[in-house]
TrEMBL record:
Signal peptide: none annotated. This is DNA (cytosine-5-)-methyltransferase. The active site is at C571. Residues 352-390 are annotated as: Disordered. Belongs to the class I-like SAM-binding methyltransferase superfamily. C5-methyltransferase family. InterPro entries: C5-MTase, C5_MeTfrase, SAM-dependent_MTases_sf. Keywords: Methyltransferase, S-adenosyl-L-methionine, Transferase.
Amino acid sequence: MRDGLEALSGNRKECDKMGQLYGLVYKKAGILWHPSLKHYVDPTSQTFFDWVHILLASGGLGQYEMNDYLKVLQLNNVGLDQLDSFQQGVCIPKALTKLPKCFFAERICKDNDTHLRCFAGELLTAIPAMTLFNSLVLEPLGILRDHRLCFQQLATIIDILSKGEGALQFLPQLKRVDVKSDSQFDGGDASMCTADEMLSDHCCSCKKRVDPENSLVIVRASVKTPEARRRRSCHNVRGAIQRLANRQGNLVKEFTSVSGDRLQEFYSNFSNLRGEDLRMKIEETVTDWKTATTTYKFTQDAEFMDEIEVRKKYVDRPNVAEHILLNGRRFFCPVKKVMLFADPKYNAKVEDTEELGTSTKRKAQTALKENEEPKKPPRKPRKGQEDKNIEEKILSKKLEMANAKDTLLKDAVESREKRQACQQPDVFKTVKNSVDTGKGNASHLMTLLDEAMDKIVEATSRLKAQLDAAEAFNKPNDWSKVVPKLGKWSRKLHVSFPCVGIDGAGLALKCLQVPFCANNVYDLEGRYQQHLEKHLPDCDLHLGSIDGDICQADLGSIERPVDLLISGPPCPPWAGNGCHKGQEDSRADVFLSVMKMVLVLIKSGDLKACVLENVKGIMHQRNGATSFMENITAFLRHECPEFDWGVVSLKAEQYMLAQQRTRVFLRGLRRTVGKGTVPEPLDPFGKKPLVDFLDPKLPSVDKSTLTDVTRQNLIDAMAAINKMMKKGDAVSSDIIVFPLDRAEGKVYVRRFSKNIVPTLTTTNMFLASLDLEMPEKDRKFFRFLSLTERMLLQGFDADTLYDCSDALRIKGAGNTYPVPLIIAVVAPLLMEIRPNLGAVPRSSTSLGAQDCAKFDEFMEVAKVKARLISQGNARRMASKRLKDLLSFLSSLSGLKDAPRSMEQQQRLVEGCLQDFVTGPKIEMTEGTEMVNWVTAASIPGWMKEQVLQAVQDKVLADQTNQKEPAKGKRQPLQRNLHLFHYFTEEEWGVMRSETQGLNAKLQILKNRCQFIGLTCPTEPTYVLANVILHLAAHNGPPETFQIDTRKAFRVLRDVKTVIKSGSKKGQHSGLEVYPSDPKGLPDAIKQTAYCNAQPVACPLDIDTIESLAMSFPCRETHGDVRRAGHSGVSLRSSHRDDGLRDILCNALLDRFMGGSGGSQPEALTIFGNGQSFKKRAKQPLALEDGFVDGPEDKTCKTTVSPQVIPEDGLPKAVEDAKPYHLEVATIYTCPNSQSWRVKKTGDKKDRAFSWKKEDPKSTWKRVVGYLEEIAN
């Protein structure tokens, strides 16, 4: 076909005719005739058949079969409303589309040769629901067996095709099902052929076969409906029945309600009757139909069983068990700690009814007895009274329900004596009074009752679930068996708890059986209030962001007396997953505030001992600086000799907690108490396995509740765990714990812990047992760490914070300190305090204010010192690493044990370079110096290449990985004062061409800046580009070049516009200073910028370019512009006033040579002629270029000029003088100013010398002295 059309392509008419027959349109550029594609494209063998549209959508076979199957159900008295009610009770997976409530009743098409009106997604849900209806309802009744079997074949085909690539393994089964389905269709099964196919050659009344001779056309054939015929005898009967309607109307109406097989039988057997015989048969048929009408009603009930019970019950029908587990209703039983599934049961209720005219009388209805009068209906009250009675009944019923729910809440929590304040007694009382008195707004009262009931129900369910979980779990934390007995106490101990958290210290004191009362209780989390009120009664709580901020507490109003202070300030400034800012972090101020409270209590004589807890990072030295803890202890030992101080580090896993949590404790003890020295902590309690803290009854995680990211993280983590198993790093009895919100390649990588929980934070952990052969839902542990388990792993009771939200429980467990560690460090201190407790100390006034001031000063000095040390070490560290690396590689050949093979040396070099690459950042200038070191190093050439590449890549990475500027902020400025070395030979040809216009040259400049990532140039870089354009267009020698000021500035503005437009498409290179040679660029930029041609040496005179760059106009600041000379002035005198230059140079020379300074007044007097400044009018770029567009001969005036010293001693300005440019600086002044400003060449900022408060002559001497200083 393809070749035939191609052969006829010359004859358009024949080609179109043959293409119409083939169904193809010949196009020479089409893929069927393309020279390079036509041998590979074969539509007949490469067609993809979409089974979804063939079976489920767009009039698919499945839609036709479902529609006809629903018709068959209706013919057998199965109502579609019952089917809809059934499908609403089926639990649909989230992947499928939920069906509307009246799906089957509304979507069925009763016309012939029509399909179900639905989408493919809806049919994918309807087929499993119908299959479940067949197996649970129709199969027990034993009806429609052939129809059910045929529909089951359709469901099997859809189920196999829905498996995607997994359907390949079911191909043999699919072929068998397809053949079986075809055989059923050939046998004429009603569920596989449509009603139109069955009735097209049958009588539409009696269903007997017809032919054109013995039948009449009732409905002509159309596009949508086929032809319908009726036998002549049936048609005559229909006519006779219509005639009887005139005399027996009710009887005929009842006969029209007869349908199905009974009506077909009537037309087949009595089509020859007429008149009275026909009427008698109609009456007999109607009477028989009335007494035999049967209605099926199905009611659903369910038995809830766990998965094992369901599979055991349906062991001989595993597919039914799978459907129940997949689609049945489910809920988690908090008592059994298992997921229960509903096994539905259906009861069929058969009702026989007898129709009498338009009324229906049930057989079970009894007649009235003799002399019995029918009951009169109750008298209806008046409309207003009726509404009032109804509202009163509703309110009374709701009030009873609310009281019953409240009673359930009491029963749930009274056993634990912890009642949450969720009752609504005022609401109950108000409603009861309104019901009793009949007054009040009923709708408002019902709203209040509904809200109260919702709160009670929510609190009841949450409390019962949490209490059941806590009571069902064995309590592993029984510290009474391991803590020492301290004996009796003479009085209560007064203990302060700044940064109290969830009161881990208070629980430790209770475990030690220490009687105490709390004071100075501070915390920023106000939601701990209810919990702390129960555990620390009779004390003032300072909680919340305002009252609980200890940094704002008044040290003069500290609650006293205080015997012991226990605190755990925030740890993020020193935590491993924090910012590592140390004292630079604002949260470190909390630790300092607690320390100042300790100082005040020590100096006041109250405090006997103190304990401060934090992470081990507080003892680490950052970048060579002294650690924070060392600074604290150094100050305390020097300024607080009354106390002995000690620092100890303890691990939670050694104290019967299966958690990797190391904590540092700063402990102090007054020297007059006990032995006067800080005792050692208690010995380790031992280790306890992780499984003792875990609840084995909790179900596995439901993956559908996870986000896409965490679901992918879980898949990656399980793949990594499988690799651990294969390597032998883990065995099947192990439990792996890891955070699910972390992944490989991120800032915080995922780390696996085996048989122990990593340090608990405010994020949750995931548990995975290694019984990998089991399905995930049957594994022993495959879930998140529960809230109860988090509390147990910190040493708390299982029901801690049981009446709080889940988020608060996670936060409280992550931020607290482990109870056994507090016991271990506090118990020895209490042993020293108890014999020397004595009477309650008298509260004395604060004597520690001066010590607090000293402490603040000491810590501030330590912070500054650490900052300077860190900055200096960071700069030296990178250079030192590279020098050590080069020294090691150069001495490698002289070592006896050095690796000899190339492969071993390669691995050694890669390891050394890895240490260098992960070191501190490298600046561009430092990188250039490093390149020179590597080039001069005496190491093999292949090593030198790798080290050079590593240095260049690190410089590029450190420059490009700068923090992105915030939205609305500029990118870092880029300086390139050697731009003339960055052009290729072709680009120089365009810029020096006399035939090319300015636009072409600007385009070359824009592209080159864009290629090298120069998107944000500095002002000197713009000026340099302007000089290159002007000098490249000059044909004569450099000495003959003259500056046209206005033209130069217009071109400068064009240069800025063009480069800025290109920067929107380009990408910032990250380089702030470009090297003098393009070869020094990072490889990534160099390969992109010079992929087609390499840069060449500048063909222009470089000295001329640099000299012109000093004289071309540019914007030096936002409101100040350096001007060039007037148009027509030669290069050598374009920006200097010769007379002014000579006089000032003489004055400076006299100063430098040690003269008496007699020339200074002379130098001063030449600046002015007694004129004063006029107020400058606001105009665009007035301070920038000194000119505006206008006539060519217009004199350009400047507003910046030196000052003069008149006779009256007040400085005045000279209007026509210009700034004076020296080789080392520029001297100028501003309008209405009283200062000279000197700007050093190359600097962005200037220096002011004001005569506002001193003699102007003295000021000028300081100016000359400054010039002498920078000149030397």
